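Reopening this ticket.

The earlier resolution said the output was attached, but the attachment link was broken on my side. Pasting everything inline this time so it's all in one place.
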Amino acid sequence: MFNELVDKYYNEIFRYCKYRLNDDEGAKDCTQEVFLTLHKSMKKIKISENIKLWLYRTADLKIKEYWRKNKNNTAVSIEDIDISNIASDEDVHADIETRDIISVLTDDEIKLLKDYYMDRKPEKYLNISSGAVRKRVHKIREKLKLL
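Inline output:
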């Protein structure tokens, strides 16, 4: 079962990590950490249609750990990314999907997500509680699920 999940999702999780980190080596490290965590957790988690969400969430956590460990990271602001170059030659649909996502979100929503996932404490500049920030992030993620 584990090998099937690796075969099915490894490249997708690697591209996600590479996109977030803009660093091949960091993306490889984070991707390996995601699947190592999956291997260790196989007995504890239910393998279902939500495994993809679990893998992405774990990737987010591993990316945050990577950023913390490597203060001089090469993370790129979402505003600085040329969307037309996101998709690889083998996965043209990723480019279209990313443009659709970005076009659905407002600038404030993009900033909130970016700050939230990069641990920049958006509750401070928004003057709201961390619970309210999590609720807003949840609403944005629900909005993206409708795509």
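Reporter confirms the inline version is readable. Residues 39 and 115 are 30 Å apart (CA to CA). DSSP finds seven helices and no strands in the chain.
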